């Protein structure tokens, strides 16, 4: 599914955004969509990275 892959790539990019609000929303979306993400290994790494974010609201 090309749309699913595109959505995943966009979400992955958002986990690395400079804006902490964007990263916070990306973390929430990752949690909700995890079972549908095609690359769960990378998604898991993104979640781990977000739990270590300098901004406590992202964590």
Structural topology:
Layout: H1 2-14, H2 20-33, H3 40-51
Helix pairs in contact: 2-3
Give an overview in words.
With 59 residues, the chain is an all-alpha fold. It has one domain. The chain has three helices and no strands. α2 packs across α3. The longest helix is centred in the middle third of the chain and has 14 residues. The protein is globular and about 35 Å long. The protein starts with a helix and ends in an 8-residue tail after the last helix. The mean pLDDT is 90.
What is this entry, summarized?
This protein is mainly alpha-helical and 59 residues long. It is built from three helices and no strands. The radius of gyration is 11 Å and the shape is globular.
Per DSSP E runs of 2 or more residues, the count of β-strands stands at 0
What fraction of residues sit in β-strands?
under 5%
Number of continuous helical runs: 3
Based on CA atoms alone, the radius of gyration comes out at 11 Å
Structural class based on helices, strands and sheet pairing: mainly alpha
Total number of distinct structural domains: 1
**Termini Cα gap:** 31 Å
Largest sheet geometry: none
| SSE string | HHH
Helical content stands at 55-70%
Mean pLDDT: 90
Label the overall shape: globular
Low-confidence stretches: none
Keyword list:
globular, mainly alpha, 59 residues
């Amino acid at each position: 599914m090309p749309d699913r892959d595109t959505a995943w790539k966009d979400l992955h990019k958002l986990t690395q955004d400079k804006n902490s609000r964007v990263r916070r929303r990306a973390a929430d979306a990752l949690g909700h969509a995890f079972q549908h993400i095609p690359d769960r290994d990378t998604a898991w790494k993104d979640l781990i990275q977000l739990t270590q974010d300098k901004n406590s609201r992202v964590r």
